[in-house]
Design goal:
There is one protein chain. This protein is α/β, with parallel strands linked by helices. The chain has one domain: Roll (2,3-Dihydroxybiphenyl 1,2-Dioxygenase, domain 1). It is built from two helices and seven strands; from the N terminus they run βαββββαββ.
Amino acid sequence: MDLGQNYLALAVKDIAASFEFYQKLGFQAVPDCGGIEEKWLILKNGDTKLGLFQDMFPANVITFNPPDVRGIQKSLKTEGIQIDNECDETTTGPAYIMLKDPDGNQILMDQH
């Protein structure tokens, strides 16, 4: 199962303050991935990525960008994993699913 790239999506209260903080840790905004005005940013420092999201998620989210979210959804359903937000398996292109691990941590699988 190819989960693609991974990053932690942080639910932040003030995206400008959070961006300023993470810049001091060496993170830079990824071009064409959100903005302060849109209230979301993807940051990168080497191979490490973080997403900053203001007013989008109630808590932090583990995020994966798989190349085939529909195939993953089918596999997870076969394994008996509950999917909270399913995607339409009859479509193609961008789609996402949401699920939780046994501790209630949210996982977003977002195919671009």
